[in-house]
Amino acid sequence: MDRTQGQAEPVEQPATAPASPATASAAAGPAAASTPAPVARIVTLTAGDFTLTVNPVDGSEIEPRRPGTGGTDPAKRDAADRSARDAAARPPALPGPAAPAPPLLAREEERERLVRLLGRGRSVRLTGPAGSGRSALLDAVAADCTGLAPDGVIRLSGYGHQQAGELLHALYAAVYEASAERPERTQLLARVRDIGAIVLLDDLEMGGSALDELLRATPECAYLLAATPDTRAPSDDSHLEEVFLGGLGRADCVELLEAGTGRPLTEEETAWAGDLRFASEGLPLRFVQAAALLRQRDERNQSSAEDDDDEPGVFEERPRDAAFVALPTLSEGAAPAELLASRVSESARAALRIACALGGEMPHHAHLPALVGDTHADAAVAELLGCGLLTPVGTRYRLAAGVARQLEEAGFSDTAAEEARTAARHYAWWTGHASVTPERVASEADAVLAALAGADVVAAVLLARTAAPAFAASRHWEAWERVLRSGAEAARKAGEVAEQAYFHHELGVLALCEGRLDRARAELEASIGLKGALADKRGTVAGRRALALVTDREKAGVEVSPPLRLEPPVAAASGTASGTASEAVTTAVPAVSKTAPTTPVARVTPVAAVAPVVPVIGRAEAPTTLSEVFEEAFPLDPKPAVAAPVVPAPVRAAEPRRKPVLLAAAGALTVVVLGTVVSLAMTGSDPETPAGGVGPAVSSTPTAGTSGGAGSVPGTGGNDPAPDPGTTVADASEPAAPEPGLSPDPNQSPRTPSRKPSSTQPSRTPSSTGPTGTSSNPVPTPTVTEPTTPPVLTPTPTPTSTTPANPSATA
Predict the structure, then answer these.
(1) Beta bridge partners of 397
(2) pLDDT digits (tens, 9 = 90+) for 50-99
(3) Taking 70 as the threshold, does the pLDDT of residue 296 lie above it?
(4) Do 279 and 330 meet the contact criterion of CB atoms below 8 Å apart?
(5) For the chain, what is the largest distance between any 2 Cα atoms, rounded to a whole number of angstroms?
(6) Rounded CA gap, 277 and 530, in Å?
(7) Which of 662, 712, 678 is nearest to 804 (CA)?
(8) What are phi and psi of 490, to 5 degrees?
(9) How many CB atoms are closer than 10 A to CB 458?
(10) What is the mean pLDDT of residues 375-380?
(11) What is the 8-class DSSP label of residue 712?
């Protein structure tokens, strides 16, 4: 029994509550009797390649799975086990006498068609508006399909699921016996592919690609998907059969009313039922509620036979003259929630207020005595279910379609904040109790999450702290993640740094188990930072261990390439001898010429293939620990400098060499042109220079009468003897005296040769020309030049024109 408000000291009996296999194994042993209550909730799970230990006190711990553990495939459940699990998955039995179920009317054709399609292995989508009787039709189809599939009939609820992941895990848990394992995605897809069952999925809320993923993952299953018209449609490639479920006819509506009231209808009530059928489009839910209105009217009108026979007593509060209650109006029949709620018991009305505060979720009837404050409040669920205000959803109940909106308009949500706070504090006590199994907490997940969303920050932190380990141990990880995120936000608003660090650590562990490494790293680093600020050494160590697993996963998934370098190529002979393919590489080698010095030319020589790329680090494998990384980056002893590798010449090495040669040739040609222009200018300005005239670049050939005269200038002829020792040679910069017998031109001033520096050195033996333009030495004299780029030895003959020879080299 759960705690009630009337008990002074609520005590739970741990022996009466069933224990999970993981809890039983943890509590087994000699010290099981003295084990504290929180330690008994420690559960060890296998999540993919990890072993997860859920510890509600210090936080979850994760480590790599040991070799030889958890590697075998689990066995499938037998027929008896599946039947027991299906019964446990149905809504709980309510206290008191069982109310008769409404009959299934006018659905024989749809029922036969669905059974026929599912027997052929076809998947069907059953579409109908809320209140059309989809759940009742699924119950009938499930009874007809028993024994058609090897793995039987499996009932699932799609309420609140927008992705296929949790539904696949629920299907896996319904077929396989794996109470302490949550497989990773690859293992999950491999195992559910072998499931051959008829799956009845009620309250479907997903479509499109998510529904396609569910159908592709289980090709051996036939699905019956019950959804409303506003649910997202499946894709065109899903190949689903469509069956639409409409309203009831007039006669069926009257029959349903008579079954609900237990008597035939009057003419007035029959006419009222016809009008209600037109207003509600014949939805069965509206006539279940209308039957409840007629029963309440009969009770108020005291129309039962036993009331007529009994004489009212003196102490009875009932008046002797019964007041007549008329039929409800058509608007009250179309929206009967307010009228029905006004005629139920006070405990039922209090339960409706709690359901409105929890977003339509009705807590388990065992929690109502503690939440309402009445020891008999557990009977309120059966009363509300008979009125048509509640509808079954999986293993729980919630307000029927449209009831929550009608009750909010009637003022039932005015105390929603107080009701949510009360529910959150109650669930915080209940989920943290040692006698409550994680599976029981998971069945109440929607009510717990609704209470967490509506509570204040203090109650939200307390509830999230106690409920999160239970959701993790029950393998309901979608609810686990939602609780952790809500708890982290509430802890941040409340300023609870320690609780905030706990929630971030759990989120990091969850992300690591699901393979989201980036998210895991972010959450774990936030948790380590918060625990470091709190000086929580133990929590910091646990966070760093989990973060090390994230790093290992990243290294295993993406290998980081080390720094690279190129080794020098081996010799050509060794490459040929080893049989390796060689490449033709152009290298510069000297070529010998007979008339010029050696000039480098390009020659193609075969060399071996380029050596493979090797890492710079001189270790056999990449560093794996943080110390090795720091030792490599910041060594204690300075490393010797690595010699620069010899890079082989590229294939097109001749083109860079050709460019300087062309530039040198162009420069030499420019010098020749400039020298020619200067010589022409000097000769053209003095065309009638006498034979003995003074010229800086022209020397006249001596004749017989003047060879030893005083007017001859020694050193200007090509065959002049060297001057005797002791004689003084006239300076070339001084003007020479005119020859005797020649009168100087009065219009021409004596010229002074300039010593303008040239880019090239003057020729060692310049050629001399006479006044007639003929050379004084007809024998060609080789001229040696000293260019800046490649040296060329070129024979230069003496020109026969009047232009003096240019001492520059030709290209």
Answers:
(1) 362, 392
(2) 999 998 888 899 999 887 766 577 888 888 888 888 787 778 878 866 67
(3) yes
(4) yes
(5) 185
(6) 62
(7) 678
(8) -65, -40
(9) 15
(10) 90
(11) -
pLDDT value, residue 302? 72
155 vs 139, 143, 171, CA distance in Å? 9, 11, 9
Q: Global pTM?
A: 0.64
Say how far apart CA 168 and CA 181 lie, in whole Å: 14
Residue type, 226: A
Tell me the three state secondary structure of residue 488: helix
Relative to beta strand 222-227, strand 153-157 is unpaired
Spatial separation of the C-alpha atoms in residues 533 and 633, rounded to whole Å:
29
* Cβ contact 472:464 at 8 Å: no
Burial-class residue 335 by CB neighbours within 10 Å (0-12, 13-18, 19+): middle
Alpha-carbon gap, residue 217 to 163, rounded angstroms: 13
- What is d(CA 580, CA 575) in angstroms, rounded to the nearest whole number? 6
Amino acid found at 776 = S
Q: Among 757, 767, 759, 763, which Cα is nearest to 787's?
A: 759
**For residue 54, which amino acid is it?**
V
Q: How is residue 14 written in tokens?
A: 């741990």
CB 53 within 8 A of CB 180: no
In the chain, the amino acid numbered 4 is: T
Write out the two tokens for 72. Answer: 């075998």
Amino acid at 383: E
pLDDT at 669 (0 to 100): 72
Tokens 């209140």 — which residue? 131
How far is it, in rounded angstroms, from Cα 62 to Cα 54? Answer: 9
Best CA proximity match to 138, nearest among 120, 152, 154, 162: 154
Q: How confident is the model at residue 242 (pLDDT cuts 50, 70, 90)?
A: very high
* C-beta separation of 604 from 586 below 8 A: yes
- The DSSP letter of residue 247 is -
Structure tokens at 571: 């010799």
CA dist list (Å): 782 to 249, 646, 701, 702, 765: 127, 42, 21, 24, 9
Residue 606 pLDDT exceeds 90: no
CB 471 within 8 A of CB 438: yes
203-213, pLDDT tens digit by residue?
999 999 999 99
- What distances in angstroms separate CA 644 from CA 121, 567, 617, 653, one per listed residue? 72, 10, 15, 20
> Within 10 A of 140 (CB to CB), how many other CB atoms are there?
17
